[in-house]
Each structure stands twice: as structure tokens, then as C-alpha cells.
Amino acid sequence: MFVLSKLMSAITQPLFWLAVWWGLALLLLVRWRRRAVAMLWAGLLVLGLLGFEAAPNTLLRVLENQYPVPSAAVVQRHVGVIVLGGATQNHASYTAHGQVPLGEAAERLTVPLVLLREHPQLSLVFSGGEGRLLAMGVSEAELARAFYAEQGVDTRENARQVAALLGERCRQPWLLVTSAWHMPRSMAEFESVGCQVTAFPVDFRTGTTTPWTEYALARSLLLWQAALHEWLGRGVYALTR
Q: Are residues 152 and 176 in the same domain?
């Protein structure tokens, strides 16, 4: 499943499929020039349309709006916080410079700090492993431990088996912190292993609406990748669970 998840990161990139499309068109130039030229122009048109953020934001908004942020009163009734990885990047820079590199999903690490300060009775568990097909020597769990140590917080860490780590404690009420668009798949996975979790979504990528005047090709392609990866992931998990 881990290898499949990493492969999905490639096949859910729109530019990957556009490259395949253009490659086929170039092959067709040898014998079917008119058809190949049409494919090249069609690919260019699709690339231009992919820059409108409204379309991928619609797909992400459906995922993000499934779970509301719980109130302080609800948080108070929980025993701890389970934080899912995905907030760090460029792990090699940590080895070189000793600073924890936070990525676009930094709220996965920073929001729990606020929760722990406002609700000191909460325990903290971080779930995150290597995260790459080829190990680079520094796991996400190590980076999280370094980050929280800098903030004066102790963590318990593991990779995927949070349920095994917590044992019967997993049946107590825990808050699950991850990106809002990643939350539906995460909740399904934790509930499937018997953990009692309440969603605490962070790292929202969308607002209530996105006007069609918002156009940014580079950012939109990243939004498309996140949306396609999650929707495809939900389908795969539903078939394999």
C-alpha cells in the first residue's frame, strides 16, 4: 500500500499525463500528422485550462467541508492528540543546517501546540515515518520530535500502527489532526482499526468560493494533484480495506 501511495503521487500529476499525451502525439507524427497536430493543440489547451483554480478547489472543498473544527468544549473531553505527518519538506536541509524545514502543511505541527497550551491534559502522539520510496536517513518522526522538543513538548512517535502503540488507550477519545482535505480518508482508516477519533482539520486550502478569475498555473497544478491524489486514494482504500 505504501509503494502504491507513492506511485499515485506520480500518476495524479496532470503534467505527467500531458507529457504522455504529447509523447504519443509526437510518435503519431510519423504516419498521422494531422491527428498528431490536433493532439498537440488539444494538450496545450488543456494545460491552459488547468490554471483555473476554481475546478480543483471544488474537488478539495468537498473533502474539506466534511468535518468541522471542534469547539474548545469538545476538545476538553479528549485524552490526547494524534498528529499525522506531511508537514515537513527537504529533509536533507535538516542534516545540513539543523533546522526543521516546515512545508505548506505546517499547520499539522503548529496547531497542536496551541491545543496543548490551552488544554495541558492532552497527550501528543505523532504518526509519520520515512515517507519516501528511497530512505534519505532522516524520518519525519525524527523531524517532528526535534520540532516539538524546540517548543518544549514531549512526543510519542510511530509510523502507521498508532493503534498498536496505544493499545486499549486507542479506544479512548482522541483528536486526529491532519489536513482538512486528507481528513475523510484518515478518519476512515483510524476508525477501521478501532480507534475512537474526532476530526480536528487544519491546513485548509479553500475558502467558501473560488472565483473563475483566480488563475495561477503552477499553484493550480499542485491543487489538482492534491485533489486527484485524495479522491483516487479514497477509491483505492475503499476497495482494499
A: yes
0.70 cut: is pTM over it?
yes
What is the overall mean pLDDT for the chain? Answer: 82
Question: Does residue 192 share a domain with residue 76?
Answer: yes
Quick one: cell of 173? 477519545
For 32, the domain range is 2-62+216-240
Cβ atoms 136, 230 nearer than 8 A: no
Is the domain of 173 the same as that of 104?
Answer: yes
Q: Grid coordinates 475558502 are at which residue?
A: 207
| Residue 135, domain member (yes or no) | yes
Query: 125: alpha, beta or left, given left = phi > 0 and alpha = psi -120 to 50?
Result: beta
Identify whether 220 is part of a domain.
Answer: yes
| 163 part of a folded domain | yes
| Cα–Cα dist 234/227, whole Å | 11
In the chain, how many domains are there? 2
Residues 80 and 156 in one domain: yes
Higher pLDDT, 188 or 159: 188
Give me the DSSP letters along 153-219: ---EEESS-HHHHHGGGGGSEEEEEEEGGGHHHHHHHHHHTT-EEEEEEE-----S---TT-B-HHH
Q: What is the pLDDT of residue 135?
A: 55
pLDDT digits (tens, 9 = 90+) for 39-74: 788 877 888 788 888 999 999 999 999 999 999 999
Give me the DSSP letters along 57-68: HHHHHHHHTTSP
